[in-house]
TrEMBL record:
GO terms for molecular function: oxidoreductase activity. It comes from Streptomyces cyanogenus. Keywords: FAD, Flavoprotein, Oxidoreductase. Belongs to the acyl-CoA dehydrogenase family. This is Acyl-CoA dehydrogenase. Pfam families: Acyl-CoA_dh_1 (PF00441), Acyl-CoA_dh_N (PF02771).
Amino acid sequence: MDTRLTAEQDEIRRTLREVLRKRCGPARLRAAVDTPAGHDPLLWSALADRLGLPGLALPERYGGVGCSATELALACEETGRALAPSPLLATSVLTAPLVLALGTGTQRAGLLPRIAAGSLTAALAVSGPALTTALALTGRNTGYSAGGGRAGGVQARRAEGGWRLYGEVAQVLDGHSAGMLLVAAHTGGYARSRTLLFLVAGDEPGLARARQSTLDATRPQGRVHLRDVRAELLGTEDADVLPALAAAGDAVAAVLAAEAVGAAGRVLERTVEYAGQRMQFGRPIGSFQAVKHRLADVYVAVQAARSAAYYAAWAAGRGQGAGALALAQALEALRCAAAEGIQLHGGIGFTWEHDAHLYFKRAAGDELLFGPAHRLRDRAAEAAGLFTGGEVAV
């Protein structure tokens, strides 16, 4: 593995950072999260038109740029630095790879060019205890079921001319505003129970959506109700959905890790800057040895997490799963950096007027959505066969 960035990768990072600096400053960020959609459509258009960001990791034959998960992770590291609220994670990281992997030729040709152009946003609606369960990041997904009959979830049934869905999914990233939903639904009854993926247009009759109040406003989520909604099966009925979800999960984790590293690096930079300005006992607090030690510990954690995220992104395209471990390390680094940022900023750090609390909420929200770290590590150890029957495998 060559750890040096190519000229193209460095240009992606530099250009994206400049665009976000101009279009996603603190004032614009707060204005965007207060809109019904939770993001700025003008920023999304700029990212799509100037950088081709939505189609960065999609093949060129579908209008994409043709890059790998590594470039997508580098891009998300920059959006994480700015806490940029956009449909990128839901559309290009969670949904588009599944359409590419399982969709028919007609479905790919009809959907992926629109996603790559930024004209179509999408969201993955997965019912169950956690999205990471379906993606096989915090447990085996071999027994995962998208619905449980009267107990909840989403059910699919055949109807004249196609399929119908009914049920509810909470905590869908950008589920309230996406132009298309990719819904995991349960079908086949008890004897032939299985999970399939279905495409649902955002304006389909019977579909009701509402934005949820969340801890992290920069990560908007929606609750989705399906009331006998017409849907199109993604791919074919014999598609192996659960392995596809698990395969996509590793790349998703690598990209999420890079995003968390970007946020952790930025909050550390701001904390170091503030420590050099805040005076106490006639000197900057950053000159005190105890503060230096605390910031040094955060720096080491962030750099280690960045290395793990870069490796996971590189390995994702080679079938060498390391995403869960990288995500666990990145989530811990972000939590550590955000907590120290709050502490060293003092009382102002958790006021609404200051941005430090936004990074703290991102850290807490990501742990709830994609963690906790110990479950990610537990699953990674299980998948690697590290422990067998309580003994260390040799």
